[in-house]
Amino acid sequence: MILNKIFLVVLSFASTFFLTSFKSNINDTISDFSLLNTNNKYVSTLDYKKAKGFIVIFTCNHCPFAKLYTKRLNDLHKKYLKLNVPVLAINAMDYLIYEDESFEMMKARAKKDKFSFPYLHDKNQEVAKQFGAEHTPTAFIIWKEDAKWRIKYSGSIDDNGENPSIAVSFISKAVDELLHNKSVTEPVTESFGCRIFYREK
Amino acid sequence: MLNRIFLLTPFLILNFICIGQYNTMWIPDTLSGTKFNLVIKDTFAQIVNKGNQTITGGINGKFWGPTLFVNKGDEIQMKVTNKLNDSTTIHWHGMHLPAVMDGGPHQIIPPNTTWQPYWTVKNSAATYWYHPHLHEMSVDQITKGIGGLLIVRDEEERSLSLPRSYGIDDIPIILTDRDFTAANQFREVPYGDSVLTNMTLRAQYNLPGQIVRLRILNAAIERSYNLGFSNNKNFYVIASDGGLLNAPVAVTKYLLHAGERIEILVDFTGQSGTSVDLKAFNSLLANNVAGGENFANGPFGNYLGKKDFTVLHLNIGDQTTQPITMMPTKLTTIKLLNPADAAITRKVTISDSLASLIPGVTILGPNAFVINHQLFKFDKIDYQVQKGSTEIWEISSTSVFGHPFHIHDVEFNILSINGVAPPPAQSGWKDVVFIPGRMGGPGAGGSPSVVRFIAKFEDYADAMYPFMFHCHIALHEDEGMIGQFVVVNPSSVDREPKEDPSFFIYPNPASNRIFVKLANDESAYYIKLTDGLGRTILLLPKPDLSKGIDIEGLSKGIYFLTVTKDSSKLTSTKTFVVE
Fold it and tell me: What is the overall mean pLDDT for chain B?
């Protein structure tokens, strides 16, 4: 029976091999980045001189679960921009394969859903790789420490996509803690949604 | 010890309360007719009662697509649009159709592309299904719930006095199990801790107090279900994978493996006001049958392993106005294929591959289960089957584990399982057969298990696109436990050169419909329409050229049309403009 068990256990690992993963860890550093916004102007982390941190949301045009968060992202941006923690939404989907994720469609989405925050096109998926973003929507909080951006939170925006009224916002809690110079009590939650497929080079 | 009990007690109470709360089983929507629009998409569903929604994949809906009702003899046209941001395929499991329409690993539908297969339904009345078959992605996409039932009706079945009010006395039951993360998301695992019957956790359903028909599909990634009722009640198997049985077969248990379907009749007459559970008696399974392992931990550890568990709680209510109350005695007369007509016996092997033992075999893990001593390769064809021929397939397995073996294109008759004729409920038409693990168990000893079946490969010669035969445990399939065969014409008609690869497109520019004309009025084997950036928009296997191609809704610009000719399979590409 032991042989049987070994056979079965070993086999299970094979199926996950082909998925590329760039997973990041808490306190990893992120370099400054500059990406094209849907208003045709580049937005850079360096533009925000007073920023203490950023709420970086990987989202996209087509994912129904990501679409649930439009109002919540506008609210987060409104609340935290004043406190120098703006929201940056980034689309890193493979637009070459999936036309729905093209820059033109991003523009249409930002306009239709009245995004108050920048909606940036990570055309080469380089920024997403740096963050290790795996799904849309996925949230990161990066915070300035010793003149470097460090990941302080990664995971979901909150704990209920469809029912915002009962959702507990992981992002608000983490940003509030960081603003009060506390460490984040729940720095990692699950990332799920529509998968970001990375193009091979 | 005391400490441990303290901790356990609240947990057990909670568990008990949860189990007490049944959810009414969801019934998939239906579509019927000859034209079907299926849109595969990323979506989400409230599967766990409390907390976050689960990310799923839907076809028209949220999890498991619509049940498609089709009639034998009809030509049906499928319009399958992939709105996932990943490629997929849709395989019509059990359907006898041209290989190019089959939806196996070769018929890849890229994102945002519409694939339009069509075929004449030649299958007999039974419960079939459709599901993704993209190589290495079956576990991922089936876990998300992409798939659905396909029910064929025919005159013979219609003439019988059988329950057929969908959702009332004719109930679709799609069995599977899933594991949920803390945030209610699916884990991609072979076995889940929770039974998920038609997308419903802790499912219950109300049935009338009469004879009801349950159409049961095992859509699990790996698990087999040893089905029976909590009161050990008799039930009657009336159909196997590919058609009615000669007569109802009374059983108290039926072991249904991944990919298999049965239709059963259960008599609840006079039982109004009572409840009974449809259960999986998996404690009775051998530990080399999927779901019979008893692992507490590790990748195969799961709460349901080697246990008996409820798959559906049934409450028996009042009779309907026109109840079926008589158990039929005769259903059909199966014309079994005759082994004397078999031109050839194919010897297929199943084994456990150790990388070190098979030189030149590249495998994903250190070990894998393999067919014919090799892993799946897109361009490796195991067999050329002559169109019109009858063949015996002899599957001989030295694997430690049992594997549900599925063959595309045909329904077959099982001849023997380890030398013994199949039980009555498996003596009709099948497209999945369970190949037991090698006799004598693991280790150096033991002898192979041998299963023989007979099939006739009547139609659809196509030297280009193969059909698959594989293990229907999605994990094993993804790891490469797949072989391929092509059906070919006995003569060399396929290769006859009469080539003029030219074609023209009119009108050009066009706005809503284009027509394609091939030299010598030849027919097209395949047409692919791509946009200026090379994205695939339409995939048209064997299109009817007289009808033209609908290009309504395409944005303005230059497009490429690639035509593969039917006779020579030569391919050429031309551009046209949409204005």
Answer: 90
Q: What is the DSSP letter of B193?
A: S
Examine the predicted complex and report whether its ipTM is higher than 0.90.
no
CA pair distance B478, A19, nearest whole angstrom: 13
- A100 closest CB neighbour out of B110, B112, B364: B112
Distance from CA of A181 to the nearest CA of B (A): 28
Collect contacts of B540-544 with beta carbons under 8 A, ≥24 apart.
B540/B116, B541/B98, B541/B100, B541/B101, B541/B107, B541/B115, B541/B116, B541/B117, B542/B98, B542/B100, B542/B101, B542/B118, B542/B566, B543/B116, B543/B516
**The dihedral of CA B357, B359, B364, B368: what is its sign?**
negative
- Gap between the Cα atoms of B249 and B234, Å rounded: 10
Provide the angle, in degrees to the nearest 10, between the axes of the packed helices A170-179 and A70-81.
Answer: 10
Per the CB < 8 A criterion, the answer to whether B397 and B347 are in contact is no
Determine, for residues B181 and A5 on separate chains, whether the beta-carbon distance falls below 8 Å. no
Residue whose pair of structure tokens reads 């998920």 in the numeric block: B196
- Rounded to whole angstroms, the Cα distance separating B387 from B418 reads 29
CA distance A89 to chain B (A): 19
Distances (CA, A) of B35 to B102, B103, B363: 17, 17, 41
Q: Are B163 and B213 in contact (CB under 8 A)?
A: yes
User: Which residue among A3, A10, A101 places its CB closest to the CB of B366?
Assistant: A10
Cβ atoms within 10 A of the Cβ of B34, count?
A: 13
- Chain A residues in contact with B110 (beta carbon < 8 A): 97
pLDDT, tens digit (0-9, with 9 covering 90-100), for B449-506:
999 999 999 999 998 899 999 999 999 999 889 999 999 998 655 444 455 668 889 9
Cα separation, B434 vs B403, in Å, equals 6
- Interface test mutation site (partner A, options B56, B81, B85, B294, max chain A beta carbons within 10 A): B85
Contact (Cβ atoms closer than 8 angstroms) between residue B166 and residue B172? yes
Pick from B44, B188, B400: CB nearest A7 = B400
B565 Cβ contact list (under 8 Å, min separation 6):
B499, B501, B518, B522, B523, B524, B525, B571
d(CA B78, CA B119): 9
User: Number of residue pairs across A and B with CB atoms under 8 Å?
Assistant: 123
Residue range B42-89, pLDDT digits in tens: 999 999 999 999 999 999 999 999 999 999 999 999 999 999 989 999
Q: Give SS3 for A123.
A: coil
Tell me the sheet residues that pair with B276: B314
Find residue B344's DSSP bridge partners: B391
Chain B residues within 8 A of A186 when measuring between CB atoms: none
Residue from the list B42, B188, B295 with its beta carbon closest to the beta carbon of A194: B42
Q: Is B296 exposed, middle or buried (0-12, 13-18, 19+ CB in 10 A)?
A: exposed
Minimum distance, in Å, between the CA of residue B442 and any CA atom of chain A: 6
Q: Do A15 and B188 touch (CB under 8 A)?
A: yes
Are A12 and B299 a contacting pair at CB < 8 A? yes
Q: Is the separation of the CB atoms in B348 and B484 below 8 Å?
A: no
**pTM, rounded to two decimals:** 0.90
Integer distance in angstroms from the first to the last C-alpha of chain B? 79
Q: What letter would DSSP give residue B222?
A: S
Distance of alpha carbon A88 from alpha carbon A55, whole angstroms: 6
To the nearest whole Å, the CA of B365 is away from the closest chain A CA by 5
For residue B50, which amino acid is it?
K
Provide the CA A111 distance to its chain's centre, in angstroms: 20
Which residue from A99, A101, A159 is facing B183, i.e. has the nearest CB?
A159
> Which residues of chain A are within 8 Å of residue B295 when distances are taken between CB atoms?
5, 8
Q: Which residues pair with B70 in a beta bridge?
A: B152
